[in-house]
Amino acid sequence: MINMNPNRTPQEEMNLKKIYPIALVIGIIVFLLIFWNKVSVTVGAGESGVVFHTFSKGIDLNEPPLEEGFHFIAPWNKVYIYSVRQKERAEEMKMLSSNGLEINIDVSAWFRPVPEKLSYLHKKIGQEYETSIVVPAVRAAARSVIGRYTPEEIYSTKRDAIQNEIYDETRKILEQKYIHVERMLIRSIILPPAIKDAIESKLKQEQLALEYEFKLQRATKEAERQRITALGEAKANEIINSSLTDKLLKMRGIEATLKLSESTNSKTVIIGSGNGGMPLILNN
Asked: What's the rounded Cα separation, in Å, for the pair 66 and 63?
């Protein structure tokens, strides 16, 4: 072996050979301590990460996002963390109904980014997607749907239908932007006081009319029931009267007399003394 420094003794050369590996290990440890945040990333619960490759292709659309847990990365790359949990965004909006009246509506959207499409979301929209995409989509959908209904329908009869239509239109917009809409809720609808009072008065009158109609129908049904009952009783009496001949009455009277005469009670039976020749029964 050639001695690069002729002034060093063989013992010194041996000591240097032992120091080199130790110095290398220490150097690596120091490097890791200084650049640890550059070479590692921890993705928390309910999160995903998108890697930006600085010296190659930037965002790789075919690369799956980083899942929860610890990951090593190249120190020159950068990771963008996204929450993939459900979020809620409430928006208070002023818009016009079908007849041009101004209505205040409070809508709440439940949404989350599609985890498998995070690279597309980051490349084409960015981390501010909530304000740049979600809010405009909710406003556009609500404005489109509300404009098809009258204040009365919005306030009373069509509220559920309006809520479903806003959800459908918002979902169609955001699904093309890699965002999934879980649900859409109408939290409140505020009409001008005069319009609200007129609608409530009309609804009250309609309720009274329905109540009156119900009472009328009930009275009509009761009268019909009584009529049918009376007809039945009259028919029964007619049948009974047609079957009660004098001979039948006399025979029934004789049968009743015989049964009474057989009883242990004390009585006097006078044959032929009753009305129409029927027996007359006297108690002692």
From this structure: 9
